[in-house]
Amino acid sequence: MSVRAEEKSGAAAPPAVGTPRLSDMGHRVSDVSETTTPGASATRPRLLLIDGHSLAYRAFYALPVENFSTATGQVTNAVYGFTSMLINVLRDEAPDHVAVAFDVSRQTFRTETYAEYKGNRSKSPEEFGPQVSLIKEVLAALRVPVLEKPGYEADDILATLATQASDAGYEVLICSGDRDTFQLVRDNVTVLYPTRGVSELSRMTPAAVEAKYGLLPERYPDLAALVGETSDNLPGIPGVGPKTAAKWVGLYGDLDGIVASADQIKGKAGQSLRDHLPQVLINRQVNGLVRDLDLPLGPADLRLPGWDREEVHQVFDGLEFRVLRERLFATLATPEPEAEEGFDLTGEKLTGEAVGAWLQANTDVPVGITVLGTWKAGHGDATGLAIAAPEPSPGKPGPAAFVNLVEVDPDALAAVTGWLADASKPKVLHDAKGPLTALSDRGLAVEGIIGDTALAAYLCLPDQRSYDLADLTVRHLGRALKAEEAPVNEQLTLDMEETAGPDEGDLAMVRARAVIDLWGALQSDLAARNASGLLTDVELPLLGVLRVMEHHGIAIDQDALGDLDSYFAAAVADAGKQAFEAIGKEINLGSPKQLQVVLFDELDMPKTKRTKTGYTTDAEALADLFAKTEHPFLAHLLRHRDATKLRQTVEGLLKAVGDDGRVHTTYLQTIAATGRLSSTEPNLQNIPVRTEEGRRIRETFVVGPDFECLLTADYSQIEMRIMAHLSNDEGLIEAFRSGEDLHRFVGSRVFAVEPADVTAEMRSKIKAMSYGLAYGLSAFGLSRQLNIPVDEAKTLMEDYFDRFGGVRDYLRGVVDEARRTGYTETILGRRRYLPDLVSDNRQRREMAERMALNAPIQGSAADIVKVAMLEVDRKLREEGLRSRMLLQVHDELVLEVSAGELDQVKTLVGQAMGGAAELNVPLDVSVGVGRSWHEAAH
Known about the structure:
This protein has 34 helices and 30 strands. It is of the alpha/beta class. It has 4 domains: 28-33 and 42-181 and 191-310, 5'-nuclease (Rossmann fold), CATH 3.40.50; 341-553, 2-Layer Sandwich (Nucleotidyltransferase, domain 5), CATH 3.30.420.10; 558-663, Taq DNA Polymerase, Chain T, domain 4, CATH 1.20.1060; 719-854, 5' to 3' exonuclease, C-terminal subdomain (DNA polymerase, domain 1), CATH 1.10.150.
């Protein structure tokens, strides 16, 4: 059977005239007039003009700040709302010309005319300012022109372009939340005015303006001059509203006519007009938009060339806008012609002896593999296997085959089994751990894996948020591949010679071909980023170790866990009851609004940080409040939250216990940009350990039947040891080589006392600062952490650096080097690229600097632990031991020890972990043993 897969662009066709289109945010354009409808004219160009600051502000206040931020702490609510609005309007209005105008500053010719202009506006929230430059980055990726003009406002730019375009026969749309733009409305100029955040726009046509205000759009500035504009701090005539103003305009023609006839207007309104006439004239001078600015671009220069796909990926990755990116790809066409290309292959459904013949003929070169089936939590089942080889020569379709593993015949099964187990046959998979689990549970062992395209892409760009195959094929091959998990932005059609349409096997062959093509494209990137060795020597071997760990899981004492569930449920109820007694009523303790009323209105406590929905009631804020007030309600509320969180952890574990009485987590290698492993479903790296109640949960993780005990091994102060190695600071090196308590040793140097005289408070301060420095801790941050004045924290840091100058020099140098090269590097050469180090956005630049400080240290620690896991696994197998690794929790390993093997395993683990890296200070490993995870702690 011949299969040709043709990839079509994911762009949706422009909507038909008058057809409503609803988005994820419920964006809607309300037609308040029937004279203009969406859909560009077939003969005249359509220009969309956007007031950047106006729409960004509306987006900022429409979406809660606390709900939109990146993993690095960058707030993105305004960027998200603005970008969502932009995508919707581009889709619904289908303009072919676009521009966005921004204000430069508040100082314009209007403030020179009237100093109080906009004087009532408070300073922009600190979370808003940095987002404007991020919006401009989005616009640059979408290739949307941005215009600014010192001394003028964005509206003046819009007015100039609208006038020029209207005169040239364009249809013009102005998207702005400033009513002054209503004066620009004409038969071919429409204002899209936000009426609810940025998700609903009203279409202000001449008829709509007249219906709302009772006058023609060109007379709107006269009405606004009379009634004033509160948002611009332009006072109107007392006692004169829009109806009266519109009546006067109708009677006297315009503001000049009203002024000339001011003595004829009777009553209090007339007298009020005469009394305030100077202000009215100032208002009219200020609210008139400038229509003849000298701009670098005219309407003809604003044609959209189509957005830059790779730049969109980079910008949206940094902002963590995966959903918006999918909407963008699904609704707007791109200029990249390569998206029309597809995967050519000659596919065959094989059975019997044909399987072996095909494998022998086509698999001497690396091939791509896709497995059909299911896998989760260390178990699975494979139902089908697709294999695709590269093109034998340019332009010639590559061969592909599919084998049904459920209905497989003996000859085919024998061929597949032997081929999969043959290490000399090079194989590449995508996100291989799950598929390998499924094959293993069907009894099929796999050797000869030379690549995993998900891991390869992760090593090249570790800050991406998505490594799914469909996304990577678009990014690296310029081809859109249908993926069942992301149907919103891909479309795949198959022309079949023998069937009416594609089935799972056909699609699997196309995905297998995409894997091998993608592998070829990633080779140069891996080499350029010095990542080939990491993939081959660390990540790929570790994939197999993690798969086995997931399969084993860890035993749980379900009775003890059930008792804990009851205990924490009672603790939640008791804490809630006492909290209610403290305030004399019952409220929803999980409701921020109800808590705000109690804390700040009824109890009159000090205000916390202001948010869109009031004052924050997050855990950190409440802990600070309790430290200040010691109010019993807060004590019970905090206990209620802690108990609730612990109960949720217990409930999650109870649900995760498998039929074998064990919990099987899933480890992820491509989540943390620093190289750290992540655990999910359930997250066993997040089991509480710092509180006694949290440690009770660890008591329920126990040794399984037929094993003797659990063994835990972890590194002591590994990040500080790496700091000593990287900085080559003589003082830190001496501390570790002396065997003295690190923080006591450092404290004695900083405070100029004998080690024995270092108090617990001194040691605590040194410990907080030592670890904080590796994370870019500032004097302000240290002062908050230690609850000391900023000046004291600054002095402490200066004294520290005076004694440990190597640390100071290293911290300065690592950021400078990363700014020069664009990346940081771990001891094993793992790179993290940080383009924001040269960003004009101060907040993003400072965040990147903190990452540059942390990434080499935390990343090196992650690399060392991974090497240690590989070495422990190798030694266990070489020595033929039954003991096995179960968990990895950052710098700790948990093993299940078989009877009679404890001493051997202790020695083996200590040597493997201690020798995982050659540092200029020793790697110290602590080992503990017990029947439970908690008992084995040390």
